Amino acid sequence: MLNFLKKTIMKKTTIQSMLFVFLFVIGTGSLLAQDVGFGVKGGLNLANMTIEDANDKNIRPGFHLGVSAKLPLTDQFAIQPELLYSTKGVEMNYDEDFLGIDIADGESDFKFAYLDIPVYLVFNLSEDFNFHFGPYVGFLLDAEVDTDAEVLDFFDIDDNEDLDRDHFKSTEFGLSGGLGFEFGSFKTGFNYNHGLTQVAEDDDPAEVLLGDAKNNVIQVYVGLLF
Q1: Exposed / middle / buried, residue 192 (Cβ in 10 Å: 0-12, 13-18, 19+)
Q2: How far apart are CA 182 and CA 223, in angstroms?
Q3: In the chain, count of helices (H) and strands (E)?
Q4: Beta partners for 63?
């Protein structure tokens, strides 16, 4: 019961922190810009991680959904903060050994849910076409791992409750960039998000499975501008 209350309080604090950051960015930008535009967006995530020999078989399909604001600075430049619910993770098979000793053998399906706050600098290449790039911070909301594995020949992990949110870092930092197209109130485009922060906690069973792996996500989106 105490553990449940602790997790609930942590999630509430995380959401409050993200809303504060998002509103702070919008408020600060509004002082510098006029004609602030708002929108909603969502789309497909193709998530992977920087694990050894990662390929298309490791991709975990998912989605993202959220809101954005566009704060024009000049005719060519704008600041665009976003608040997104985004799923990430990886589907991986592993067979690791060291000096002939099996370290890990099995497969895992890592499923993560984050609230991401990217802040893009938008460069308008034309009236309806832009390039955007900037940092993002992500807050881990939930983690679920479906695993059938054996670590060091004696530590079995075969239940998704063995590795939960507590085994992964609560905050992620990264870089994101992409191309966007705007046609009136409709927009579409794609982004590539590259995580800079190790996902697994240090000295944790999750680190045995993932090492220093970081999140990578390709996003294809559509949205509406108001």
Answers
A1: middle
A2: 9
A3: 2, 9
A4: 44
**Shortest CA distance to 121 belongs to which of 200, 177, 68?**
177
What is residue 9's predicted lDDT score, i.e. its pLDDT? 47
Stated as kind and residue range, the H or E segment containing 195 is strand 186-195
3-state helix, strand, coil in the chain (%, to 5): 20, 60, 20
Q: Which of 102, 90, 43, 111 is nearest to 213 (CA)?
A: 90
For the segment 40-59, what is each residue's pLDDT rounded down to a tens digit? 999 999 999 988 766 777 89
CA distance 131 to 144: 34
Dihedral (C-alpha) 61, 202, 104, 147: value to the nearest 10 degrees? Answer: -40
Is residue 68 within 8 A of residue 225, CB to CB? The reply is no
Q: What is the pLDDT of residue 194?
A: 97
pTM of the model: 0.77
Closest CA to 66 of 22, 16, 26: 22
pLDDT at 136 over 50: yes
CA atoms within 13 A on the CB side of 39: 22
H-helix or E-strand containing 226? Answer: none
> What Cα–Cα distance (Å) separates residue 112 from each residue in 102, 191, 222?
27, 19, 22
Of all helices (H) and strands (E), which one includes residue 167? none
